[in-house]
């Protein structure tokens, strides 16, 4: 038991790069685009922690080994889609992202189950999912009109 406690204490000192956060995101989706209020609130509560530079870290995000998993998920999420960089993404990439959003939301692949376990407010009901899918489909259509 003593050994386990020592290991848990020592791993707290292992250096890990915490993904940076920014309150000012001039190229952000919500800052520069008209997004319906119901959709923007869903995006903020269910998507923005991993898919923007506006991550809100819970208290346990500073404790290893949880922080390693959390930081990894955030980095992967931002790599796939970062709503804070929406206006600098080219049209073709936006089209692909919007198509993917609709798919992963309707197929309940997002938000991740492990995320909603700790963040029950991020669970999407069928109406939320349909609203996000409709919005992403409409925005996709508007890219080419």
Structure description:
The protein is 57% helix and 0% strand. The chain is mainly alpha-helical. The protein has one domain. Helix 3 (37-46) crosses helix 8 (126-143) and helix 6 (91-106) packs antiparallel against helix 8 (126-143). The mean pLDDT is 95.
* Helix fraction bin: 55-70%
Shape: elongated
Q: Give me the secondary-structure category.
A: mainly alpha
The proportion of strand residues reads: under 5%
Tally of extended strands? 0
Radius of gyration: 17 Å
What is the string of SSEs from the N terminus onward?
HHHHHHHH
Strand count, sense and barrel status of the largest sheet are: none
Instruction: Quote the average pLDDT.
Output: 95
Distance between the termini: 65 Å
Domain count? 1
Uncertain regions spanning at least 5 consecutive residues: none
Number of helices: 8
